[in-house]
Amino acid sequence: MTRHARQSELTASPAALRSVFGENLKLLVKKAPSVSALCRELGINRTQFNRYLAGESFPRPDVLHKICDFFGVDARILLEPVEQIAPEAVPEANPADDVPNGLLSHPWLGSFTGPALCGVEEASFPSGFYRFTRAAFSDSERFVTGVIYVFRKDGFCFLRGLEPKAALEMNGVTPTIQNREFRGLVMQQAEGIAFLVNRRDALTASFNYLSRMPSIARTFWLGYAVRTTQESPSARRAARMIYEHLGYDTGKILAAARRGGYLQLEDVTPFHRQHLRFDEGFA
């Protein structure tokens, strides 16, 4: 390394140095089974580790030693690109990974989205299966019910479900599993839970908000869903929605799945119908 280059590093801003370390860390963690497993093995708080990845913070010397020892590198990862100082530690590029990683933890967004993404506790929104009901978006006379699955992976909370077959057939789309599938990211809000839900390739999206109902069983969440579409006099863009936690009760899950799809008002579960107030306007 030249004297000029060494001097440039010594005078680099703390933000620039954190950025170098964060980018190095993103490359190194690709070799780990998961970020959550890595944090557990290193004994590092997941939220703090996300700050390292986002270039928001430096680790303490003892934490840096753990990271370097685990990946077989040295403290130069604070200053220099890891592919230059330890190319063997960097996993080979995967041609399929053509979508930018860490979008929601990007330094420009990290302080705004990061805590919400990592803070969904089991107590506030448990994993398992849920039955949901809402007014249909594409049919003003009917309602939709179905089952979604909520789970935790790598410290985040996700959901997965399938669109009703009839919904795709109405739009001339073949109702294959791949076409019907939607996935979502669950985020903690001050007074509830929010979802950002997409179909494959982000063809459509919806925003959902739920707040736990103060019932004895505490198994119901009430809120609304909003879809990203142009205004139309014959279709809804927003509707009240209710979620009922079924847990892992096979009998309840199968019964709810069999009833999934479009319903007339009189066929909606009475408790769901009562709280969705279909005869009242939504604002």
UniProtKB/TrEMBL annotation:
Pfam families: HTH_26. One of its GO terms (molecular function) is DNA binding. Transmembrane segments: none annotated. InterPro entries: Cro/C1-type_HTH (IPR001387), Lambda_DNA-bd_dom_sf (IPR010982). Gene3D superfamilies: lambda repressor-like DNA-binding domains (1.10.260.40). It comes from the Bacteria. Residues 34-78 form the HTH cro/C1-type domain. This is HTH cro/C1-type domain-containing protein. It comes from Salipiger pallidus.
